[in-house]
Design goal:
alpha+beta; Protein Transport Mog1p, Chain A; 7-stranded antiparallel β-sheet; 4 helices; 11 strands
């Protein structure tokens, strides 16, 4: 099981017997360079220049758009889509077990799911650890079969898991990828203290508008990346 070097809160909550030489959480946060997340709320409690959408606080950038994605049946917000400089990234945060992450297990499930759709997946090292570069089967505008490159990134945090699905320029161009990754590195996850089953979606709301949500539901992690945004809100 891989835990990313950025997850100082997971180190803080390690069981007895863990390496006692770790830097105290407060000192580490104070010394951490800008953009070394994604963060847990305990590490970055201030909103700063981020947009509050509930379980996620997304850093704002000039020219960036945020599209809130709805589940068709319940009209519940289930994802945040960030569109920036010809790239897009879908963000979702989920509950995870206290003792271990879920990204290793999910990579296998995503690979199998995409293979059944006729696509291909390559596992490779990225800025956040192991990631998946997938090529999803699509139909072009003229009706021909094609492949769409998409990157699946995962970060195991303290009792949460953050998934990012990257498409557009950032899926294939190094410079564009760096711009999107910089945004992702400054995301804050708000897990909450209540008990939640693993893989349950952490609740989202419209930008800066707590409580403005649709009918309650408990959607879990969906491996289908083909769902598109249903409603657009400018952050």
């Amino acid at each position: 099981m891989i835990f990313f070097r950025r997850r100082n809160k997971r180190e803080e909550s390690a069981p007895e017997g863990a390496d006692a030489r770790e830097t105290p959480p407060t000192a580490e946060v104070e010394q951490a360079p800008e953009g070394s997340g994604p963060w847990d709320l305990a590490d970055q409690p201030e909103l700063g220049k981020r947009v509050d959408v509930g379980a996620l606080r997304v850093p704002a950038r000039q020219g960036m758009q945020m599209r809130m994605e709805l589940e068709p049946k319940t009209r519940r917000i289930v994802a945040v889509n960030v569109v920036y400089q010809g790239s897009a990234v879908q963000l979702q945060a989920f509950a995870a077990p206290r003792s271990q992450g879920i990204w290793e297990e999910l990579r296998e499930e995503i690979t199998e799911s995409i293979g059944k759709q006729g696509g291909s997946v390559e596992e490779r090292d990225g800025s956040f650890g192991l990631e998946l570069l997938a090529r999803l089967p699509v139909r072009t505008k003229d009706g021909r079969a094609g492949l769409r490159p998409v990157r699946f990134l995962g970060v195991d945090g303290p009792r949460w898991f953050l998934r990012a699905v990257v498409s557009g320029k950032a899926a294939i161009e190094e410079g564009a990828a760096a711009e999107v990754e910089e945004i992702l590195q400054d995301v804050v996850v708000v897990r909450g203290d209540g008990p939640r089953p693993p893989r349950e979606l952490l609740p989202l709301h419209l930008p800066g508008k707590p409580g403005e949500q649709s009918a309650p539901a408990r959607p879990t992690l969906d491996l289908d990346s083909g769902r598109g945004p249903e409603i657009t809100e400018v952050g």
